[in-house]
TrEMBL record:
Protein name per Swiss-Prot or TrEMBL: Planctomycete cytochrome C
Keyword NAD: no
Stretches with biased composition (Basic and acidic residues): 474-483
Coiled-coil intervals: 379-406
Keywords per UniProt: Coiled coil, Disulfide bond, Signal
Gene3D superfamilies with a match to the protein in the record: 2.60.120.200
Biased composition (Polar residues): 491-501
Keyword DNA-binding assigned: no
Region (Disordered): 474-504
Pfam families with a match to the protein in the record: Laminin_G_3, PSCyt1, PSCyt2, PSD1
Length: 1089
């Protein structure tokens, strides 16, 4: 082992001898470096008014580009301005509160005197192909190459590294850093024994290496390392904002854990998340990874503008990508050019175009449906069930086709029983407006429903008299008007449509409802239209206006103001649309007519659907003639009409909180339980006799064919219901045609959009790395750009983030900002060497972690001398080992693991651990579902799996500095507050863990041994004499107290759901519980040393 204290005088002597020829760090500081000495001054004090933001640049002066500033600099005016005492001339202006210090003035003057040399910002310069490795004195101290950079810097600073940490300290440190859990007593014992076998340095290094290799292969590695990435990815189990409903995004969390455990190379780790869906023959896991872009907050506030929130979603994706992957504050240029970094506003929107083209609405609804586009994630059992259902569907389709074939023979011998036109079968509903609105059942006809209800949201005066050319059911075969009441009774009595032979089309006096777009007519009890249900809707209407989208008919099982489910018939600028959706627009099928229907005239419009789950099964007719349509959407997953406790609402002229059929007139509406054939529709529209055809016979007449259709319908439903049971998660999926992207003035969704503001997909125009010429202009191309080994940011940002997870601070203290306002790296050469080494070795995360934790730098003792504390209070120079408070997850998991309570089950839906007080979810948000605490071992899962509700995170985790995960977070705050001690002493989870820990040590021979074992489980070491003295004294005091207050002892040990497994006297167990609580609160427990 190298003993630096023995050579300290030699190092100082050598430094003194060479000071005139080999400059020390301080000597080097005498040579001005633009990035280190000058740019921070210009960025902090000048760039806000004289930087990259052209729109807010004062006096046309730009100081961040030498070519634009040098004339003014050389003229001497800059020096005159910074020296001036005149408030009108002085720069920066006094009103800016950015006045230069005397030291800053001297630096700028010297820089100008030396020629005002500029340099590219360090983070924007390409990674060097090779980084020269220093050769410091006492190089044998170095175990890893990275140690050479650290030691070289320490020697320049005339500091010595600390001696190695005690083996047990290192073991606890590395186990917590690689798995988030403490070493077990068995692991500590095995480590001690392995070291004792041979004290040779080479052997000891091998023991350390074996420990690291074991930890890197443990499942806990991915579970622990995932936490920091999930912070950056803003992963949570709820949508956020006011409603903050729970979501189903936990499979993404499990994917991250598995990817880290499998050591997926970091370039692939990013590529899958950015564009896994675009990879050739993308797997389910690659598609799942793209949920990274979809786990942002979502709104469902009443009255939300869909496009506004879609734009917010895109902005969040850009922000997260920029911060987590590039280490840039891209959100700063959403409304204007970046004030400090060379990123114009136009570049921001060019980048946003990559994330702008998925088929989403921008909001989510109040049901349990998953925002689109989405991915189904079946279990193996569900996959088998779905496959079996599909096999049965193929059989049913074959049987139906065979039955149709055989029906041709029956059709050849079939003759109608009479010359009268037959009743059109399968009428489900008929609504007319010819009788008075007296709330009688005659206005709405349900031939097979006892629950007949009628609700009018329109006042009586909205029913108007009209002269309508049509076949009128009140015209009997002899041409006489039988009267409205008699017609309604006739419908009631026959159970069918009485469209008997008579005048084909005549102008008859009718009454129609005039719609204003805000109110309509609703009836309940109509069975849901869904993917497997064939139906026809016939409506006589008059479209007076030519306006954007309006709802004519809607059938859904529950109203929603932020999304849509079910089926609707809409009209947009005269074009009819028939749509069936679970979540519009991406989980839907829809068709639209090529030509608009005639305006301001009466027509019969019919929409039919054949139950095939294909958009081709949606057809539109005008006056009995099939209309040419185009397919808008053609995929529905799961049910379109989510089942609730009633059959659904059938709404005429309006839809919940949506634009109805404003200015339109509707005479009557009829619903049939099958897709009517062309002859039937022609008859309904014109009165023409129904022409017997094979299709008509099979659909309406032939019993075997109709029975085969029922079997086919049941098989179709079985497939849908097999999907319904599957978990589902939002993912990325490109639209067939890319959505245009525009520069949005001030970031507003409704800013003017034209060819001048339109942008193409691209990256940063002023960076040294252009978008690859051979890469597709999509997210996959963006992933190739960001993982290009020449990219100056990706490798540096990744290495810096990983370094920060092992040391108290990353090499760049602002991991979220590598731009001009960010901090300079403390060890720039080390950062560049590590980034280059990381990239050159296949972006291997585990290899990088292994290098760090096996380094001499990491193995140092963390104790600090008075000299070092004064010289380097934050350990920037790395002259001692890492020391920092454990994260919220580590503290809770440590307590669970040490106590033996932890359930190490991996993956799955989130669990709900103890929550203090009443139901905080409901108290903080009346629209939230109630908090349902888990039961059994689920209470003791790792904190990674605890439910994360954005507006009401678990209070104990927040107190311990966890983030709400509302936005991308690259580094958590680290605090040390009395509230944290109160949590550890009083929170149910920790009190129960202390009792379980006390129970686990009760089998030891005496109290001293029990205290030592509990101490070791929590701190990783034996308690020293002073600690033992205090803990034994505390135990004796508490035994006395609980002996006198047995009821209080019983209450203490009864806290928590886990049953007591010990027969020890309750007062003794309660006293040991208090001792374990005290140990749990020690600095030695909650800090990594």
């Amino acid at each position: 082992m190298v003993q630096f204290n023995m050579v300290r005088s030699f190092v100082v002597l050598v430094c003194g001898l060479v000071v005139c020829t080999v400059p020390s760090w301080h000597c080097l500081a005498e040579d001005l470096d633009f990035n280190r000495d000058v740019r921070p001054i210009l960025s902090d004090k000048c760039y806000f008014c004289h930087g990259p933001d052209e729109g807010h640049r004062e006096a046309g002066l730009r100081l961040d580009v030498r070519e634009e500033a040098i004339d003014l600099i050389e003229s001497g005016e800059v020096i005159d301005r910074i020296d001036s005492d005149d408030a009108d001339l002085q720069m920066p202006p006094p009103a800016s509160n950015l006045s230069l210090t005397e030291k800053e003035k001297r630096t700028l003057k010297r820089w100008i005197d030396e020629g005002a040399v500029y340099a590219d910002h360090w983070a924007f310069t390409p990674l060097p192909e090779t980084e020269a490795v220093p050769s410091p004195h006492e190089v044998e101290w170095c175990r890893e190459t990275l140690d050479r950079f650290v030691l070289s810097r320490l020697q320049r600073e005339e500091l010595l590294p600390n001696p190695p940490a005690a083996p047990r300290r290192w073991l606890r440190r590395v186990t917590l850093d690689l798995t988030g859990l403490p070493p077990t007593p068995a692991e500590m014992q095995a480590f001690d024994q392995a070291l004792a076998a041979d004290d040779h340095r080479g052997h000891q290094d091998e023991v350390y290496q074996a420990v690291v290799d074991r930890l890197l292969q443990s499942s806990g590695f991915g579970e622990h390392l995932a936490v920091s990435w999930l912070d950056a990815a803003r992963y949570a189990d709820s949508y956020g904002y006011q409603s903050d409903k729970l979501n189903t995004q936990w499979p993404y969390r499990d994917w991250v854990v598995e990817a880290l455990n499998q050591n997926l190379p970091y370039d692939q780790f990013l590529t899958w998340q950015l564009a896994g869906d675009l990879l050739p023959d993308a797997t389910r896991q690659q598609k799942l990874a793209t949920a990274f872009n979809r786990i942002h907050r979502l709104n469902n506030e009443g009255g939300a503008v869909f496009e506004e929130w879609r734009i917010e979603n895109v902005a969040d994706r850009v922000h997260t990508f920029g911060t987590a992957v590039l280490g840039l504050t891209l959100e700063c240029c959403r409304c204007h050019d970046h004030k400090y970094d060379p990123i114009p506003m136009r570049d921001y929107y060019s980048l946003s175009a990559f994330f702008n083209s998925i088929d989403e609405s921008g909001v989510y609804d109040r049901t349990e449906k998953v925002p689109c586009p989405s991915l189904l994630l079946p279990t193996a059992e569900q996959e088998a069930t779905l496959q079996a259902a599909r096999d049965q569907l193929r059989i049913a389709e074959q049987q139906y086709a065979a039955t149709l074939k055989r029906s041709e023979q029956r059709f050849a011998s079939w003759k109608p029983e009479s010359d009268d036109q037959p009743t059109i079968a399968d009428l489900r509903l008929a609504i007319g407006f010819d009788v008075d609105f007296d709330n009688t059942i005659k206005d709405v006809y349900h031939p097979s429903q006892s629950d007949r209800s009628w609700t009018s949201m329109s006042p009586l005066q909205d029913v108007v008299d009209c002269s309508i050319p049509r076949l009128d059911p009140r015209i009997a075969s002899d041409g006489k008007d039988v009267g409205a009441d008699q017609a309604a009774d006739s419908l009631d009595n026959t159970g069918g449509d009485q469209s008997n032979a008579g005048p084909a089309r005549i102008d008859v006096p009718r009454r129609a409802i005039a719609l204003d777009g805000e109110r309509g007519v609703t009836t309940h009890g109509v069975p849901s239209f869904d993917r497997w249900t064939a139906f026809s809707v016939v409506v006589t209407l008059r479209d007076v206006q030519r306006t954007p989208y309006r709802s004519v008919i809607a059938h859904h099982t529950r109203g929603t103001d932020c999304g849509y489910n079910g089926w609707d018939l809409t009209i947009e600028n005269g074009h009819l649309e028939s749509r069936m959706a679970r979540v519009w627009p991406g989980n839907a099928m829809a068709v639209r007519t090529i030509a608009p229907i005639p305006a301001d005239s009466w027509h019969q419009v019919t929409a039919t659907y054949d139950g095939s789950s294909r958009a081709a099964g949606l057809r539109l007719y005008l006056d009995g003639e099939l209309l040419e349509t185009e397919i808008l959407r053609d995929r529905v997953k799961k049910q379109a009409n989510v089942v609730v406790d009633h059959g659904g609402e059938f709404v005429v002229g309006q839809r919940f909180r949506d634009r109805g059929f404003a200015g339109g007139l509707i005479d009557d509406v009829r619903v049939y339980d099958r897709a009517l054939t062309a002859p039937e529709l022609k008859h309904l529209a014109t009165g023409a006799p129904i022409r017997p055809t094979k299709d008509y016979f099979a659909s309406a007449i032939d019993p075997p064919s109709r029975e085969a259709m029922q079997v086919l319908t049941a098989a179709r439903k079985a497939v849908v219901m097999a999907e319904e049971a599957m978990n589902e998660i939002p993912i990325m999926e490109e639209m067939q045609h890319a959505r245009p992207a525009y520069v949005l003035a001030r970031g507003q969704y409704d800013a003017p959009k034209n060819e001048d503001t339109r942008v193409d997909r691209d990256t940063f125009s002023q960076f040294g790395l252009p978008f690859p010429d051979d890469a597709p202009r999509d997210r996959l191309g963006l992933a190739r750009w960001v993982t290009d080994p020449r990219n100056p940011l990706t490798g540096r940002v990744a290495v810096n983030r990983l370094w920060g997870s092992f040391f108290a601070s990353p090499l760049v203290a602002t991991p979220e900002n590598f731009g001009l306002q960010g901090e300079l790296p403390t060890h720039p050469e080390l950062l560049d060497w590590m980034a280059r080494d990381f990239v050159d070795h296949g972006w291997d995360v585990k290899r990088l972690c292994r290098q760090i934790v096996l380094s001499s730098t990491y193995r140092q003792d963390s104790r600090v001398s008075a000299e070092k504390l004064q010289r380097d209070p934050d350990n920037v120079l790395l002259a001692r080992g890492p020391s920092n408070r454990l994260s919220a997850e580590q503290i809770r998991d440590l307590a669970l693991a040490a106590s033996g309570l932890m359930d190490k089950q991996q993956g799955g839906p989130p669990v709900s651990p103890y929550q203090p007080g009443a139901d905080l979810w409901r108290e903080s948000n009346g629209m939230s579902p109630p908090y349902q605490q888990s039961v059994g071992t689920a209470l003791y899962r790792r904190s990674l799996y605890s439910v994360w509700k954005r507006t009401a995170p678990l209070p104990n985790m927040l107190a311990l500095d966890a983030t709400t995960r509302e936005v991308c977070t690259m580094e958590r705050s680290r605090t040390n507050t009395p509230l944290q001690a109160l949590v550890l002493m009083n929170d149910v989870q920790f009190v129960e863990a202390a009792r379980a820990l006390a129970e686990s040590v009760m089998g030891e021979s005496d109290d001293m041994a029990r205290i030592q074992l509990a101490f070791a489980k929590l701190t990783g070491r034996r308690a020293d004499e002073n600690e033992v003295t205090h803990l034994v004294s505390l135990l004796e005091q508490e035994q006395t107290y609980f002996g006198e207050h047995p009821q209080r002892a019983a209450e203490l040990v009864a806290i928590g759901q886990s049953p007591s497994s010990q027969d020890a006297p309750v007062p003794h167990l309660a006293a040991m519980t208090i001792v374990c609580q005290a140990i749990m609160n020690l600095d030695a427990t909650v800090w990594k040393r």
